[in-house]
Specification:
Elements lengths: L3 E6 L5 E7 L4 E8 L5 H14 L3 E6 L9 H17 L3 E5 L3 H8 L5 H23 L1
Parallel strand pairs: 1-4, 4-5
Antiparallel strand pairs: 1-2, 2-3
Helix pairs in contact: 1-2, 3-4
Length: about 140
């Protein structure tokens, strides 16, 4: 089983990144990339993959509330396929429904500017914690 993971909460304008370790089950926010989806975002994530050297990349899969996949899931799958091809690291998917809501709940009482700066990285942490719990 993979030991080091990098989790990605892919967004249109901001993407949250977290890292985690299977042995400890710990997840930590890394950063929020304030870069629209595209080549610049791909390059920034590839740089983070090189820096953190994960054994597995975990990407949030945005499912509909009825568990079906829609256009956003297809965008995530396409992005993940290119990321895996360019890094040589396997990308796995995990249901990301309600991760942003959970991140917002954890940040209650935090200023609006701090929420905007950290919420997406925290959502990536929630995604990783949910994946750990499912294993």
């Amino acid at each position: 089983m993979s030991e080091r993971l990098l989790a990605i909460d892919l967004g249109d304008k901001r993407t949250g990144i977290a890292c985690g370790d299977v042995i400890s089950g710990a997840a930590m926010p890394v950063t929020v990339l304030d870069i629209p989806r595209g080549d610049a975002l791909m390059t920034a994530i590839i740089d983070l993959v090189r820096e953190h050297a994960p054994d597995l990349i975990l990407m949030g899969l945005p499912l509909n509330m009825d568990s079906t996949e829609g256009p956003r899931a297809e965008l995530s799958r396409t992005f993940a396929a290119e990321l895996s091809e360019r890094t040589g690291v396997v990308v796995a998917f995990h249901d990301e429904r309600l991760t942003s809501f959970e991140a917002e709940q954890r940040m209650r009482g935090t200023s609006r500017s701090q929420k905007k700066a950290k919420a997406d990285a925290l959502a990536a942490c929630v995604l990783l914690e949910s994946w750990f719990a499912s294993q």
